[in-house]
Design a protein that fits this description.
By secondary structure, this protein is an alpha/beta fold. Helix content is 17%, strand content 29%.
């Protein structure tokens, strides 16, 4: 049986704030409307969609069990644009022909940007 990842569900304290974060910084499209308890964000350039779900007050958010990784060809350009929009990424790490950097969403969930999917096969380690 084959399958593909189609949706990531993110539990959020403030659903609207989290939806705006992913729309503003990663280009997801959304009406922001809560339908059936969820805010849907679609990936206009392919990839998995995101559903924002209201977190229970007892939920511990921001754990490292899941990290969303966004494919970005030019990390430095993306980091500069994100900074201009108020999102700060940490140190850029380089390994095996690609680079990545990490940040947090409003609920302290880990997000990263990575050029891994754009690396050249058999690229030398830097």
């Amino acid at each position: 049986m084959k399958s593909s990842l189609g949706t990531v569900i993110i539990y959020a304290r403030d659903m609207q704030k989290t939806a705006r974060f992913y729309a503003k910084h990663f280009g997801f499209e959304t009406s922001g409307e809560v339908i059936e308890g969820l805010i849907e964000l679609s990936a206009p350039h392919g990839g998995a969609d995101i559903l924002i779900h209201q977190a229970a007050t007892s939920s511990k958010l921001g754990q490292v069990g899941v990290k969303l990784s966004f494919h970005v060809q030019d990390l430095q350009a993306f980091i500069a644009e994100a900074a201009a929009n108020g999102l700060k990424f940490g140190t850029v790490h380089t390994a095996n022909g690609y680079s990545f950097a990490n940040a947090k969403d409003p609920d302290k969930n880990s997000v990263s940007i990575s050029s891994r999917s754009f690396r050249k096969v058999n690229a030398p380690a830097e």
